[in-house]
Every structure is written in structure tokens, then in C-alpha cells.
Design brief:
The protein folds into 3 domains: 157 residues, Sandwich (Jelly Rolls); 95 residues, Immunoglobulins (Immunoglobulin-like), CATH 2.60.40; 294 residues, TIM Barrel (Alpha-Beta Barrel), CATH 3.20.20. Helix content is 17%, strand content 31%. It is built from 7 helices and 35 strands. An 8-stranded parallel β-barrel has the order 21-24-25-26-27-30-32-33, surrounded by 4 helices. Strands 3-2-4-9-6-7 form a 6-stranded antiparallel β-sheet, with no helix packed on it. The chain has a 4-stranded antiparallel β-sheet with strand order 1-10-5-8, with no helix packed on it. Helix 4 runs parallel beside helix 5 and helix 6 packs parallel to helix 7. The chain starts with a helix and ends in a 6-residue tail after the last helix. About 3% of the residues have low confidence. The protein binds alpha-D-glucopyranuronic acid. The site of alpha-D-glucopyranuronic acid has 10 residues, from loops. Alpha-D-glucopyranuronic acid (GCU) binds next to loops.
Amino acid sequence: MKTNLIFILLLLCAVQAYPSDTYLANIYGRETRSLNGKWDAIVDLYEQGATSKIFLNKKATGHSDFYEYSFENGLRLNVPGDWNSQKQELKYYEGTVWYARHFNSEKETGKRKFLYFCGVSYRCNIYLNGRKIGNHEGSFTPFQIEVTDDLLQGDNCLIVEVNNRRQKDAIPALAFDWWNYGGITRDVMLVTVPDLYISDYFVQLDKVSPDVIRARISLSGNQKGEVVQLKIPELGKTLRMTTDSVGVAQGVIHTKLTRWSPENPKLYDVEITTTSDRITERIGFRNIKAEGTKIYLNDKPLFLRSISFHEEIPQRMGRACTASDAGQLLSEAKALGVNMVRLAHYQQNEYIVRRAEEMGIMLWQEIPVWQSIDFTSPETLEKAKKMLRETILRDKNRCADCFWGIANETRPSEARNAFLNELLKTGKELDTTRLFVGAFDNVYFNSESKLFEMEDPFIDKLDMIGINKYMGWYAPWPLEPEKCNWKVALNKPLFISEFGCEALYGQSGDATVASSWSEEYQEKLFRDNLKMFRNIPNLCGISPWVLYDFRSPTRFHPTNQEGWNRKGLVSDQGQRKKAWYVIHEFYEQIRKKDIVNLK
Ligand code: GCU
């Protein structure tokens, strides 16, 4: 009886309940037409464009009419791309920019058409042929709008009103330590699907079993009784299912397989077909869990050798937005010797996620609940839940995504605890296969106990605790590093999600003087922190802050910073600093000796 009960509970815990009413799964595996390229643009500093209805894109025809705008022969901006890095006068711009482009379309019977935006920063209104057809808030998640009945035969005019103004009720809010890029910063495409199409699916390994693949496939229109086939040719497996009364087909494949890992990032070709639609993609299968104070990948404990990076190409001083940008960031991370990347501090683009899968890099993907969010606002909570949901919906089949981060450096309060509890509940309703985490900066040195400690009522609900701690930079050493002992969340895996300090590449100085901003100081600080980390009994991994120097308007020093946060192990020109070699050597030791615990 007991065994059956456990099996039923496991079955329930692994079955996913994905609402599939947001967007098409696996957009890059669909019939799409890119709308990337040069778009016409108008900078609307006083936000008068909506009042002037410039989305009608009128042209003067008679003797008396005139319009004080035109999208032709003016500013042109690359899409995808932020506007800040494209025009010197837009470097600091925060406000509205109108984008416009034309495209031809053909009416096709038996087909449906969607506009799909992979990311627009920060909020936008979408107009097609002079009519508002949709809007979205949040820079880092996709959205789609069905335009089957809105498209004209032949020429269509698409206009996007983009605004990146920081706001108290936004996520992130008024101040954050990265550049406030604005624009259509990710791909845009026109998608064509059959009338009856595969709208969403989840195909992943069961939470705990190494040889049970769970599939849940939703068809458009809640179509009942449709045959859906899932094939994994390399495994010689074909699963035939039939949709239920709400158009969902579910099934299980029992099979031996090679589980995805950093050492062997195995991906399988997967094909989903119905009578009218067919989708293919490559999916990896792995198990991830937290047990005791360890993280287990495929039932084996491992040490997380991580690094963080922003979605930014420093040499271009702009958003990373292409497959080659993803390659640059991840190749530099891989060279350091990582098996994981913490994608700070927001959901990063799908090129990065898919490339990480191919390269065998585990990901911590987070929503930008960063420090001073308005935790008292119910509207802000709804925005955060929507961002988390959109993140999980987009990436639920991505085996590289192992951790969902829901907050960074938020401090305990009744409002914040309630906000994060709600957010965590939303996440766990959507995905019970991955681990939920957060990064906290409230570890302090207790001068009585002589221990590093932390009180935070929320952390016990998380699977792994991330700690941001800048010993030797924002916090002076209270003791010799090797004498610093921690007593933090001892019953949980503890991950150092940020540590480090600033150094200007090429600047030499006294290794004991922080204000030298020298590579020698940074190098010594990293060595000292590694000494301290050996004393953390439940340490499961570390993630230095940060891979590359990155842009931030909060960094005022005229020679050491010049609007750059200089904590990179690599300079903004791609040069590796002395501290890079300290971490590289440390990660090589961990990897070669397969070390799980530093004690
Ligand atoms: C914080 C924060 C980062 C920031 C870093 C720093 O820990 O999470 O976003 O860039 O400190 O001060 O450099």
C-alpha cells in the first residue's frame, strides 16, 4: 500500500500543469518570417505621438492637409538591438521611440498568423495598419499577437511604440546596477501555423526517474480526439496519444537514454506531429535535485563552477541579441572552466539558453526582482508572477535551465516575505522539475559568535540559497580569511551567487589597497575569498561577480569606472585580468579531482 501511495505522489508531483495560453512553444522551430532589419524610427521625447496618432502613418494628399511627422527618410534603427548603442544622442535616452516597418503578406486559407516579439524593452504598444492590436510590459520575455484577421493582402504597416522609462511599480524599478537599454532588443517574426496547430508542449525527463520521459502536448482550439505522435528516432521510440476534452494529449515513454550533463551535453531530435502540424527540435533529458546540502545532477552530487554575466556585449556597449553574441559570452565562460552560468539579473534571450544546452552549461535564469521593488503593490506582484510564468513557459523544455531565481538582494519585511511567497507558489505550480533559488545579501559577521550568520524567514522555502557577499570590498575582513567560519542555512545547499571586487585592466597597484582599483588587489581578494569558502560546510558552488566589465550609470569614478562596473574577470575589451587565472586554476582543480565539497 505504502509503495503505491508513494508512486502516486511522485506521479502527481512530476505531472506538469502548464497553462498554454500565452505563446507558441519553440518559436524557432516554426514556420517564421523574420521581421528583423532596419526599421524607421521617431524619437518622441515628450510622448506626444499617441495624441497625434502617428500610428496612423498618414500621408498628405490634398492642398490643405499636412502632418508633422513621417517615418520615411528619418532615423533608422537596427532590430534586434537597443537604441542606446546605435546613436550617440540616444546613449542615455529614457522615454518613447516609435518604430515602423512595412511587410508584405498573403492571405492563406487554413492558416493562422501571429506576430511574435522575443523581447521589447521595457513596455510597448503594437499597431498594425493603424489599429492597436496589443501591448506588453517587461523587457525580457516574449509575447505574441494573432493577426490572422488583421493582415492585409499585400502591404502591411507595423508600428511599435516603445518606452523604457524607469518606474517605481516596474520590475526592475527606479534604480539598478546595469544600463537601462531601450528598444526592440530581440528578434521579431511573423509566424504561420495551420488552423489546427500544436500550441504548446512539455517534453522532459520525470523529476526523479532516469528513464521516464513525460509528455504533455496542447493543440489549439481545445480540439478533442486528435491523434498526436511524439517520436524520438535515436531511441526508437514513438508515443501515440489522443487529445482530451481540452485538447491536451499526455503520455509517458519508458526508455534507457543518455542524460544531458556538462560533460556530455546530449540532445535528442524530437518530432511532434498531428494530422495538420509538425514540429521538431532538440531536447536534453536530465534530473536535477537538491538533497541535504548538495545539488545532484543525474543522481550525482556536483560542485557548481559558475560565473555571472549580463546580456551585454561590452565592446559594442549594447545588448547581446544574436546567436553570435551568445557564442561570445558562453565561450568566454566556458574558457574559465564553468559548468554553470548565473544569467544576471533577468531572463536572457533564447540564443543564450539554447547555446548553453549545446555547450553543456547549466543555467540559473532569474526575473529582475532586484533590490528595491515595490513589494506593497498588488499590481507589481502580478507583474512579477507574469514574468516568472512567461520565463517558465518559454524555457520549460530547456534542460540547461536548472534553477529559477526569483529575487536578488531583497531584505526581509512582511511585504517582501508575502510577495516572494506568492511568487514562489506561482513558480512551483508551473514547474516542479527545476529548483527555485534566490540571492541574498544579508549575511553578517556576528562579533559575539565570531561566525557569519543570517536571519531570513523566507530562505527555508527555497531549494538552494544564493549569497552575495563582497568580503574585502563592500565588507572589510573581520578576521583572517581562513579564520572566517559560516553558519548560514546549514540544512540547505549554499551557493555563493556573487563575490569579487573592481579592478581596471592593466592598472597595477598595492594588493592591500582597495582604492588602487588594481589587478593585484582583485587577484589577492579572489585568493582570500577562496580560503574563506573552504570553511563553509554546506557550500555547493560559487559564482564570481562577474565575467565582463559591464555598463552602469551608477559607477561615477572618472578614471577607474567612467560608467562601467569594473568587477569583470575580463575587461570591456575582452582582456583577461589576473583574477581570471585564479578562478580558472581553481575550477580546473575542482573539475579534475571531481571535488564536491571544499572542506
Ligand atoms: C550586487 C548586485 C549586482 C551588482 C553588484 C555590484 O550584489 O546583485 O547587480 O552589480 O552588487 O555592486 O557590483
